[in-house]
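Illustration: Efflux RND transporter periplasmic adaptor subunit.
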Amino acid sequence: MKYFSLFLLLILMPGCRSGDKGEEKPVVAVTVQRVAVEDVPLEVSAPASLFGRSEAHIAPRITASVRQVLVHKGDAVKKGQLLAVLDRSDLEAEQANATSGVALAEAALEQAQAGHIPDQLSQAHADLTAKSAALDLAKKVHERRQRLFAEGAISGRDLDVSNMSEIQAQADFDAAKTRLELLERQISGADLKIAQSTLAQAKAKHDLATADLNFSELRSPTDGFVTDQTIYAGDMAKPDVPAFTVADLSSAVARAQVNADQAAPVSKGQACEFEQRRNENSPQPPHFGKVTVVNQAVDPARYAVEVWCELPNNDHELKTGVFGSVKVIVGQAHGAIVVPSSAIEFDEGTDRGKIYTVDAQRVAHLLEVVAVHVDDDRVRVLSGLKPGDIVIVQGEYGLPDETKVSFDEVRQ
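Result:
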């Protein structure tokens, strides 16, 4: 028991002596780099999705069952190519009926143009003929009585009566002639106009029937690819449901939603690039293009401005629906303070982060900075650092503030 107590005392004594002098803080080995000053591009980035250069949503104009589908998703199509045929038996019957109506109307117009005389016009002609004969008779009677009056065979009263009869016959003839001329103008003109109007109506009905018949055929309005299909043979096609979507993929458009506070420097014609969402197994290189659309309205739900980055796509490598991000080069920052991305830890969803600097005594100091990404490897620090500062780029994780550090040299 005495030896055990002595042994315990010997173990505890060194600890007491060390506590009296105080523990020395460890020196942590890190990798550092001096802050660089560079000219770097200014860019605006935002999430984006890919669309075709143009997209046509093809919906039927009539409700009918689908008789035949000639293309499917992924197929390349040409402008005007037949995509599907709807049932058209009733439409064909309507067109045949309309064609018959046009033929009948054309025959009626020809008859009117040939001068067909209705009963009323025929009676007017007969009346004029009768009045003409009565006028001739009245003239002959008056001429005979003039001779007889000259010979003293009749009185002046008889001559006056014959004269009045001739005048009345002439008036009756003129009235009949005027009535016939007026009747010819009225009846012939009305018949012609009615015939012309009937033909126009018949042709309009025929055109409508032909249009309805054409609506039973769904055709592509542009060259492209079928990217969506909702109908199959036997389905009931309806006007309120697009049957196909055809996208022109000769170029792709990345539609980005740029934060409204960052959208001011973005304009048409600027260089832009689209990068697909990262896939560690098969990383995709960025695709480069130009800004073609900058919306002049802010989406209140997203507080964003839509920007289109158009990308060449001759090999059709880019597909619609792909998600990624768009970067737009909006200028150049001269004399920017740049550090490696590994040197800063950003607060999630912000432009603020933490970074360690090292002073002349090789003591690390934790600082808060404001920074933005230049690319995957570099960060531009907007505030918190100055040229010539030394920052820790490796080994700072979990490092307490004011820790003594060691490094071989300052590397660039």
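Reading the tokens back as a structure: The first strand starts at residue 28 and ends at 29.
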